Structures are given as structure tokens and as C-alpha cells.
């Protein structure tokens, strides 16, 4: 007679379809949380780097003004391209050119060089994610409105091909507003600079723009 032997390896029940779907849903939820956390970390890093960029530019502007008896650089275009091709200071040249000696920028190579301190990392990330091939600027020159008179203050002037419409850069001593409240640079986008295809489509930091003021401090500027 054959003796009945005990099965040392009992069959284990397989996952049911419901259990498998639950496991997949939990894994997807965890992955989403991790992704959101990473995006938050990246966003915080981008904001910090952007602030550092603007402070560096602010220090260069102050050094330029000190060497030129309070005169600010310019006249310059509204949008500040991060690529520079020459160090020849002229009407309409970007701040990268006017401030090159104070930012220790290397001489441009053939085809242009990128001034990294003029590149907001959040803008660069948006360029990659949205495939914005025309974008090569992330900061724009600030304009401050004097509410009492309705006049606008252009610290670095305003370049125009017509000298009649051109606004010359100001001296620190003649600026009619408090320097701590006068915009120098801020994050540029197509919402702020309508129709300009060389800047990102939407504000790089979401609900605000980083802004540099003429006294050198940087603060978030809420969207209009």
C-alpha cells in the first residue's frame, strides 16, 4: 500500500485581478507623489539659482555705475538675450555686453557664447519641456511707473532704431523714484512681454516673477 505523503510545498493562491489592480494603483500613486516631490525640489533649486543670477547682475550694475559716476549702462533692448556675440558697447547692446568686464565673461566664440548668469534655470527647463526653439532670453529690463505723474522710469534707457524714440539710460542721482522700489530686471515671458517669441511662454516660476531692484535686492513680484 502506498502511504499518503504530506505535501511540503503547498500550492499558494495567485493574486486575484482585483489585488493586482490595487497593487498597480498604489504603485502609481506612490510614483506620482515622488514625481511631485522631485518637481518641488527642482522648482526650489531653480528659484534659488535665479535669485543668485539677479544678485550677481545687480552687483555688476552697481560696479559699472560706480566706475561711470552713477551712469547706468545702456541704452539697451527691453529683452536681455543670454547669448552675446561681441564686447562692443553700442546703442542697443544687451546688458551682457555692457557688464561683461564686471561679470568676468569670457570672449565670445564664433556663433556666440551664453552668459549663464542671464539664464534662469526655470526658463531653460520650460524651453526643453515645450521645445521652444526661438527662446534665448529669460530676463527683461524693468520699467517702473510713477503713479502720481503716469510717467515711466527706464533705468537702462530704451533702445529704438529711431533716435527720436530712444530713451537714454539714467544716472542713479537723477532717478525720480526710490532705488529700492525701482525695477532693474525681472523674469521675462510672453505674458509680460506680449508677442515676444524669444522669451518663455508662461511665467517661469508660476505665480510670481523674480525681480531685481536698483538697490541690489531681489524679491518676488506677484503676477498682475
Shape from CA axes? elongated
The biggest beta sheet reads:
5 strands, antiparallel
Strand content: 15-25%
The number of distinct structural domains comes to: 1
Count helical runs: 4
- Tell me the quaternary state: single chain
User: Could you give the order of the helices and strands?
Assistant: HEEHHEHEEEEEE
In spatial order, strands of the major sheet run 1-4-7-8-9
Mean pLDDT, all residues: 87
Number of strands: 9
Helix amount, in percent? Answer: 25-40%
Kindly, what is the distance between the CA atoms of the first and last residues, rounded to a whole number of angstroms? 92 Å
User: What are the segments in which pLDDT stays under 50 over at least 5 consecutive residues?
Assistant: none
Gyration radius (Cα, Å) is 27 Å
Task: Report on the architecture of this protein.
By secondary structure, the protein is α+β, with helices and mostly antiparallel strands. The protein has one domain (17-222). Helices cover 31% and strands 15% of the residues. The protein has helices spanning 17-67, 95-98, 100-103, 121-130; strands at residues 79-81, 83-84, 113-114, 137-141, 144-146, 151-153, 183-187, 208-213, 218-222. Strand 5 (144-146) and strand 6 form a beta hairpin. The protein starts with 16 loop residues before the first helix and ends with a strand.
Amino acid at each position: 500500500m502506498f502511504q499518503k505523503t504530506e505535501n511540503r510545498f503547498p500550492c499558494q493562491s495567485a493574486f486575484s485581478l482585483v489585488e493586482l489592480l490595487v497593487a498597480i494603483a498604489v504603485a502609481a500613486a506612490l510614483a506620482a507623489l515622488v514625481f511631485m516631490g522631485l518637481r518641488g525640489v527642482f522648482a526650489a533649486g531653480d528659484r534659488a539659482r535665479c535669485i543668485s543670477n539677479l544678485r550677481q547682475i545687480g552687483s555688476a550694475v552697481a560696479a559699472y555705475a560706480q566706475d561711470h559716476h552713477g551712469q547706468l549702462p545702456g541704452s539697451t533692448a527691453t529683452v536681455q538675450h543670454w547669448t552675446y556675440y561681441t564686447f562692443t558697447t553700442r546703442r542697443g547692446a544687451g546688458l551682457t555686453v555692457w557688464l561683461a568686464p564686471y561679470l568676468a565673461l569670457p570672449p565670445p566664440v564664433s556663433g556666440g557664447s551664453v552668459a549663464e548668469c542671464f539664464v534662469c534655470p526655470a526658463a531653460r527647463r520650460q524651453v526643453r519641456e515645450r521645445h521652444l526653439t526661438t527662446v534665448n532670453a529669460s530676463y527683461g529690463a524693468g520699467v517702473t511707473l510713477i503713479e502720481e505723474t503716469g510717467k515711466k522710469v527706464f533705468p537702462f534707457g530704451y533702445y529704438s532704431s529711431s533716435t527720436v524714440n530712444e530713451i537714454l539710460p539714467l544716472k542713479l542721482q537723477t532717478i525720480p523714484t526710490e532705488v529700492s522700489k525701482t525695477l532693474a530686471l525681472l523674469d521675462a515671458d510672453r505674458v509680460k512681454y506680449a508677442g515676444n517669441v524669444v522669451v518663455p511662454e508662461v511665467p517661469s516660476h508660476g505665480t510670481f516673477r523674480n525681480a531685481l531692484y536698483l538697490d541690489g535686492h531681489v524679491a518676488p513680484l506677484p503676477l498682475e
